[in-house]
Amino acid sequence: MLRFEEGKLVMPSFKPGDIVLQGKSSDDSPVEVAICSAEESGGETWYEIEVRQKDSTKWVNPCVPSGQVSSPRALAVRGVWDETGARQDVNGSFTFACELGAIAKCSTWGYKPWDSKMADLHQACTRMARADYCGDGRSETKDNNIIDMYDGMGHVERETRETPGFSPSRATFEAAWTPEGAWCLARTRKNTPLEEVMQQCPGRFEKSEKDLGDGDVCTLARKVDANERRLVHNRSYPPEMLTRPSISR
User: Fold this and answer.
1) Per-residue pLDDT of the chain (249 residues; tens, 9 = 90+)
2) Which long-range contacts (CB under 8 A, 24 or more apart) does 28-32 make?
3) In sequence order, what are the residues at sequence separation of 6 or more whose Cβ sits closer than 8 angstroms to the Cβ of residue 185?
4) What is the rounded CA–CA span in Å between residue 101 and residue 90?
5) How far apart are CA 134 and CA 205, in angstroms?
Protein backbone atom coordinates (compact mmCIF):
# COMPACT_ATOMS: atom_id res chain seq x y z
CA MET A 1 0.00 0.00 0.00
CA LEU A 2 1.34 3.42 -0.97
CA ARG A 3 2.06 5.74 1.98
CA PHE A 4 3.09 9.36 2.20
CA GLU A 5 5.82 10.17 4.73
CA GLU A 6 7.49 13.58 5.05
CA GLY A 7 7.48 14.41 1.38
CA LYS A 8 8.26 10.87 0.25
CA LEU A 9 6.12 8.16 -1.28
CA VAL A 10 6.70 4.85 0.48
CA MET A 11 5.53 1.48 -0.75
CA PRO A 12 6.82 -2.07 -0.22
CA SER A 13 9.11 -2.99 -3.12
CA PHE A 14 8.37 0.40 -4.67
CA LYS A 15 10.39 1.03 -7.82
CA PRO A 16 10.01 4.09 -10.04
CA GLY A 17 8.42 3.10 -13.33
CA ASP A 18 6.44 0.28 -11.75
CA ILE A 19 3.46 2.31 -10.62
CA VAL A 20 0.81 4.46 -12.29
CA LEU A 21 -1.45 6.61 -10.12
CA GLN A 22 -4.91 7.96 -10.90
CA GLY A 23 -5.10 11.70 -10.40
CA LYS A 24 -6.38 15.04 -11.66
CA SER A 25 -4.63 17.87 -13.44
CA SER A 26 -4.80 21.49 -12.33
CA ASP A 27 -7.91 21.96 -14.47
CA ASP A 28 -9.57 18.98 -12.74
CA SER A 29 -9.26 16.68 -15.75
CA PRO A 30 -8.59 13.01 -14.91
CA VAL A 31 -5.04 11.87 -15.68
CA GLU A 32 -2.79 8.90 -15.13
CA VAL A 33 0.51 9.73 -13.45
CA ALA A 34 3.59 7.57 -13.95
CA ILE A 35 6.55 7.94 -11.61
CA CYS A 36 9.63 7.56 -13.79
CA SER A 37 12.39 8.15 -11.23
CA ALA A 38 13.04 9.36 -7.69
CA GLU A 39 16.10 11.15 -6.37
CA GLU A 40 17.08 12.44 -2.93
CA SER A 41 18.50 15.96 -3.01
CA GLY A 42 18.79 18.64 -0.32
CA GLY A 43 16.69 16.65 2.14
CA GLU A 44 13.86 16.30 -0.36
CA THR A 45 12.74 13.58 -2.74
CA TRP A 46 12.29 14.75 -6.31
CA TYR A 47 10.25 12.74 -8.78
CA GLU A 48 10.34 12.69 -12.54
CA ILE A 49 6.73 12.17 -13.56
CA GLU A 50 4.74 11.85 -16.76
CA VAL A 51 1.00 12.12 -17.23
CA ARG A 52 -1.44 10.77 -19.76
CA GLN A 53 -4.86 12.25 -20.20
CA LYS A 54 -7.93 10.14 -20.73
CA ASP A 55 -8.23 8.75 -24.26
CA SER A 56 -4.63 9.69 -25.06
CA THR A 57 -1.67 7.42 -25.76
CA LYS A 58 0.94 10.13 -25.21
CA TRP A 59 2.86 10.49 -21.95
CA VAL A 60 4.28 13.97 -21.20
CA ASN A 61 6.03 15.80 -18.37
CA PRO A 62 3.35 18.11 -16.92
CA CYS A 63 5.95 20.48 -15.44
CA VAL A 64 6.68 23.44 -17.70
CA PRO A 65 10.42 23.83 -18.48
CA SER A 66 12.42 27.04 -18.37
CA GLY A 67 15.71 28.12 -19.85
CA GLN A 68 17.49 26.97 -16.70
CA VAL A 69 15.55 23.73 -16.10
CA SER A 70 14.72 21.77 -19.23
CA SER A 71 13.16 18.74 -17.49
CA PRO A 72 11.52 19.94 -14.26
CA ARG A 73 10.90 17.43 -11.49
CA ALA A 74 8.20 17.44 -8.81
CA LEU A 75 7.82 17.17 -5.04
CA ALA A 76 5.11 15.08 -3.41
CA VAL A 77 3.25 17.39 -1.00
CA ARG A 78 0.37 16.43 1.27
CA GLY A 79 -2.94 18.18 0.53
CA VAL A 80 -4.41 19.80 -2.56
CA TRP A 81 -4.61 23.46 -3.64
CA ASP A 82 -7.80 24.87 -5.12
CA GLU A 83 -8.23 27.60 -7.72
CA THR A 84 -7.98 30.30 -5.03
CA GLY A 85 -4.57 29.04 -3.95
CA ALA A 86 -5.93 27.66 -0.67
CA ARG A 87 -4.55 24.39 0.64
CA GLN A 88 -7.03 21.69 1.65
CA ASP A 89 -6.41 18.41 3.45
CA VAL A 90 -8.12 15.68 1.46
CA ASN A 91 -7.90 12.18 2.86
CA GLY A 92 -5.69 9.99 0.70
CA SER A 93 -4.71 12.80 -1.67
CA PHE A 94 -1.46 14.65 -2.29
CA THR A 95 -0.05 17.04 -4.88
CA PHE A 96 2.86 16.62 -7.25
CA ALA A 97 4.27 20.17 -7.14
CA CYS A 98 6.52 21.10 -10.06
CA GLU A 99 9.89 22.46 -9.00
CA LEU A 100 9.45 25.79 -10.80
CA GLY A 101 6.13 26.47 -9.07
CA ALA A 102 5.43 28.28 -5.81
CA ILE A 103 4.59 25.16 -3.75
CA ALA A 104 7.91 23.47 -4.47
CA LYS A 105 9.94 26.68 -4.36
CA CYS A 106 8.70 27.49 -0.86
CA SER A 107 9.85 24.06 0.27
CA THR A 108 13.33 24.55 -1.17
CA TRP A 109 13.46 28.03 0.37
CA GLY A 110 13.12 26.48 3.82
CA TYR A 111 9.44 25.90 4.61
CA LYS A 112 8.84 22.14 4.50
CA PRO A 113 5.08 21.65 4.08
CA TRP A 114 5.15 18.14 5.59
CA ASP A 115 6.41 19.64 8.88
CA SER A 116 3.23 20.55 10.78
CA LYS A 117 5.04 23.46 12.46
CA MET A 118 5.76 24.99 9.07
CA ALA A 119 2.50 24.31 7.24
CA ASP A 120 1.16 27.85 7.72
CA LEU A 121 4.56 29.38 6.94
CA HIS A 122 4.70 27.37 3.75
CA GLN A 123 1.20 28.47 2.75
CA ALA A 124 2.03 32.12 3.49
CA CYS A 125 5.14 31.70 1.36
CA THR A 126 3.08 30.45 -1.60
CA ARG A 127 0.96 33.61 -1.40
CA MET A 128 4.16 35.67 -1.32
CA ALA A 129 5.78 33.80 -4.22
CA ARG A 130 2.72 34.44 -6.41
CA ALA A 131 2.16 37.98 -5.09
CA ASP A 132 -1.40 36.89 -4.30
CA TYR A 133 -2.34 39.98 -2.28
CA CYS A 134 -6.07 39.27 -2.11
CA GLY A 135 -5.65 35.58 -1.28
CA ASP A 136 -7.96 34.60 -4.14
CA GLY A 137 -5.49 32.92 -6.50
CA ARG A 138 -4.71 35.93 -8.67
CA SER A 139 -0.99 36.42 -9.21
CA GLU A 140 0.70 39.81 -9.45
CA THR A 141 4.19 38.51 -10.08
CA LYS A 142 6.13 37.81 -13.25
CA ASP A 143 9.21 35.88 -14.28
CA ASN A 144 12.61 36.94 -12.97
CA ASN A 145 11.37 39.06 -10.06
CA ILE A 146 14.15 39.34 -7.50
CA ILE A 147 12.78 38.56 -4.05
CA ASP A 148 14.19 38.33 -0.53
CA MET A 149 11.91 36.79 2.10
CA TYR A 150 12.31 36.44 5.86
CA ASP A 151 10.16 35.53 8.83
CA GLY A 152 11.89 36.81 11.96
CA MET A 153 11.41 33.41 13.62
CA GLY A 154 14.78 32.00 12.74
CA HIS A 155 13.66 29.81 9.85
CA VAL A 156 14.61 32.13 6.99
CA GLU A 157 16.65 35.26 7.67
CA ARG A 158 16.65 38.49 5.75
CA GLU A 159 19.55 38.72 3.29
CA THR A 160 21.98 41.51 4.18
CA ARG A 161 24.94 40.55 1.99
CA GLU A 162 25.72 41.91 -1.45
CA THR A 163 25.93 39.01 -3.89
CA PRO A 164 26.08 38.76 -7.69
CA GLY A 165 22.37 37.89 -7.72
CA PHE A 166 21.02 40.23 -5.04
CA SER A 167 21.68 43.73 -3.73
CA PRO A 168 19.96 44.51 -0.38
CA SER A 169 20.40 48.23 -0.97
CA ARG A 170 18.20 48.05 -4.07
CA ALA A 171 15.38 46.00 -2.50
CA THR A 172 12.51 47.66 -0.64
CA PHE A 173 9.73 46.30 1.54
CA GLU A 174 6.83 44.92 -0.46
CA ALA A 175 4.45 43.08 1.88
CA ALA A 176 3.84 40.90 4.94
CA TRP A 177 1.97 37.66 4.41
CA THR A 178 -0.43 35.20 6.02
CA PRO A 179 -1.77 31.90 4.62
CA GLU A 180 -4.79 33.89 3.38
CA GLY A 181 -2.83 36.51 1.43
CA ALA A 182 -1.19 39.83 2.24
CA TRP A 183 -1.46 41.10 5.83
CA CYS A 184 -0.26 44.48 4.63
CA LEU A 185 1.66 45.89 1.71
CA ALA A 186 3.75 48.91 0.87
CA ARG A 187 3.60 48.55 -2.90
CA THR A 188 2.95 45.93 -5.55
CA ARG A 189 5.55 43.86 -7.35
CA LYS A 190 4.47 44.87 -10.85
CA ASN A 191 3.69 48.49 -9.93
CA THR A 192 -0.06 47.84 -10.00
CA PRO A 193 -1.67 50.85 -8.26
CA LEU A 194 -2.71 50.13 -4.68
CA GLU A 195 -6.15 51.52 -5.48
CA GLU A 196 -6.56 48.72 -8.02
CA VAL A 197 -5.67 46.12 -5.39
CA MET A 198 -8.32 47.59 -3.10
CA GLN A 199 -10.85 47.27 -5.94
CA GLN A 200 -9.85 43.68 -6.66
CA CYS A 201 -10.64 42.64 -3.09
CA PRO A 202 -13.09 45.23 -1.74
CA GLY A 203 -13.39 45.50 2.00
CA ARG A 204 -10.10 43.70 2.64
CA PHE A 205 -7.61 46.58 3.00
CA GLU A 206 -7.53 50.08 4.36
CA LYS A 207 -4.89 52.77 4.17
CA SER A 208 -2.35 52.43 6.93
CA GLU A 209 1.06 53.52 8.15
CA LYS A 210 1.82 50.45 10.24
CA ASP A 211 5.52 50.32 11.10
CA LEU A 212 6.64 46.71 11.43
CA GLY A 213 10.20 47.68 12.30
CA ASP A 214 13.50 47.56 10.47
CA GLY A 215 12.20 49.73 7.67
CA ASP A 216 9.11 47.63 6.89
CA VAL A 217 6.31 50.20 6.72
CA CYS A 218 2.86 49.40 5.31
CA THR A 219 0.73 51.54 3.02
CA LEU A 220 -2.31 49.26 3.11
CA ALA A 221 -3.24 46.83 5.89
CA ARG A 222 -5.98 44.28 6.53
CA LYS A 223 -9.08 45.77 8.09
CA VAL A 224 -9.67 42.69 10.23
CA ASP A 225 -6.57 40.91 11.42
CA ALA A 226 -7.45 39.79 14.94
CA ASN A 227 -7.27 36.13 13.96
CA GLU A 228 -4.33 36.46 11.62
CA ARG A 229 -0.63 36.67 12.27
CA ARG A 230 1.85 37.89 9.73
CA LEU A 231 4.30 35.07 9.13
CA VAL A 232 6.48 36.01 6.18
CA HIS A 233 7.81 39.36 4.98
CA ASN A 234 9.45 40.08 1.68
CA ARG A 235 11.48 42.73 -0.04
CA SER A 236 11.89 42.96 -3.77
CA TYR A 237 13.28 45.26 -6.41
CA PRO A 238 10.85 47.99 -7.45
CA PRO A 239 9.66 47.37 -11.03
CA GLU A 240 12.10 49.83 -12.59
CA MET A 241 14.98 47.88 -11.04
CA LEU A 242 14.06 44.47 -12.46
CA THR A 243 17.20 43.93 -14.49
CA ARG A 244 18.70 40.63 -13.36
CA PRO A 245 17.18 37.24 -14.28
CA SER A 246 17.41 35.53 -10.90
CA ILE A 247 15.72 35.11 -7.53
CA SER A 248 17.62 35.16 -4.28
CA ARG A 249 17.09 31.94 -2.30
Assistant:
1) 677 777 788 876 666 666 788 888 888 888 999 999 889 888 899 999 999 977 788 999 999 888 778 899 999 998 899 999 999 988 878 999 999 999 999 999 999 998 989 999 999 999 999 999 999 999 999 777 889 999 988 999 999 999 998 999 999 999 999 999 999 999 999 999 999 999 999 999 999 999 999 999 999 999 876 556 899 999 999 887 544 433 444
2) 29/53, 29/54, 30/54, 31/62
3) 133, 174, 175, 176, 194, 197, 205, 218, 219, 220
4) 21
5) 9
